[in-house]
Amino acid sequence: MAALAAWAYLAAGHGGFWRTSPTDGEDFGECGGVPAGGWPDVVAVVPARDEAAVLPGTLPALLAQEYPGRFRVVLVDDGSTDGTAALAARLAAGAAVGLEVVAARERPAGWAGKVWAMSEGVRAADRSRPELVLFTDADIAYGPGAVAGLVRAAAVRDRDLVSRMALLSVATGWERAVVPAFVYFFAQLYPFRRVGRDGSRTAAAAGGCMLVRRAALERAGGLAAIGGALIDDVALGRLLKRSGARCELRLARDVVSRRPYPGLADLWAMVVRSAYHQLRYSPVLLAATVAGLAALYGVPPVAAVAGAAAGDGAAAVAGAAGWAVMAATQVPVLRFYGLSPVRAVALPLVAALYAVMTVDSARRHYTGRGGMWKGRTAVGRAAGG
After folding, report:
1. What share of the chain is helix, strand, coil (3-state, %, to 5)?
2. Of the candidates 19, 72, 74, 157, the residue with the CA atom closest to the CA atom of residue 149
3. Which residues cross the membrane (predicted)?
4. How far is residue 81's CA from residue 148's CA, in Å, rounded to a whole number?
5. Is-contact 76 120, C-beta < 8 A?
């Protein structure tokens, strides 16, 4: 009954977290939502470390953006060893949008790798003093008018941060099992509607696509204020919102991740890299998270099956009802990804998998392998540290 009550609250009162709000076909009114002051200058900052494999499928789309104003791209080569910088320069030959490739300077102690690369991109972008900076990842491909759509959203809805959660790959069986749940759990932690509500304490962003007003970022203290953040998108969202910035986070189909996660090991690595960090490396929060997942996702199906087997009608009905509400809340995300709603019935098993991955994230932290990404620790250490 407690689990059923919890699911009733989540479905009815938790910011409508389960209701997807994709940006497809938005109506911005007259003139297609042209900003009142004209189209502002935009610079896209792309941190890239050993991204030669994905750049051919993403960078040309960014360099072909149909943006009516001034738009250029700064790609930050973050110590790549696979020819990322040279490949980017070749891909930019003849492109309509200008590309500047900069080499990241040595990362200072206490800075997370990606945030430092983002900061290096902002340093290069500041030479032209753009009004807007688009932080994006090397594996993200944009539809032809995606950047213009982001700028319209910022102008029409008066937002300092407009973020889009990229459409992730669901080509393989493991991706179809794990990825929709990843999006679902993220929305449950950070309900998108609450992120966009002024005065709400809920703040987050999706790191693959974050359009930020440069003035708002400077008012908040700049990227140095989150220099050590491993989860840079959530940290940036919190930094901006706490400074009074107005934010927006939604799903999108015209912002697409081209990074494949063909096997469970690839998805596992993605999750465990930051899961324990999100729990602030706290054993207490880890225990509470695992217990909460077990109670919320495990109790309803166990009660439904065990209650039916034991002839306990109340337990069986309450468990089945909780399970049904749980499954119903995942259906919109599954439909967004073009997957069968029947998959929602297996959400308790996927939640159990995420619980195991979270525990493994803690194990890796305590064995000195936490936060590893592309062969290095995520946060720089002082000499001798």
Report:
1. 50, 15, 35
2. 157
3. 279-297, 303-324, 336-357
4. 33
5. yes
Query: 3-class SS at 165?
Result: strand
Per-residue pLDDT tens over the stretch 79-138: 999 999 999 999 999 999 999 999 999 999 999 999 999 999 999 999 999 999 999 999
Going by their DSSP bridges, the two strands 209-213 and 161-167 should be labelled as antiparallel
Q: Which residues pair with 71 in a beta bridge?
A: 42
Q: How far apart are CA 232 and CA 114, in angstroms?
A: 8
Its pTM stands at 0.93
Q: Indicate whether 381 pLDDT > 90.
A: no
Q: Where are the beta strands (DSSP E) in 110-260?
A: 132-136, 140-142, 161-167, 209-213, 247-257
Q: Are 120 and 48 within 8 A, CB to CB?
A: no
Domains and CATH numbers, the chain: 2-12+276-377 (no CATH), 17-25+40-262 (3.90.550.10)
Predicted local distance difference test score (pLDDT) of residue 37: 79
> What is the b/e burial string over 130-140, where b = at least 16 CB atoms within 10 angstroms of the residue's CB?
bbbbbbbbbbb
Picking from 237, 240, 246, 256, the residue whose alpha carbon sits closest to that of residue 189 is 237
Alpha-carbon span 153 to 165, nearest angstrom: 15
Tokens 């990606």, residue located: 114
As beta bridge partners, residue 373 has 376
Calculate ∠ Cα 92-97-98, nearest 5°.
65
Q: What is the pLDDT of residues 282-298, one digit of tens each?
A: 999 999 999 999 999 99
Contact 140, 226 (CB under 8 A): no
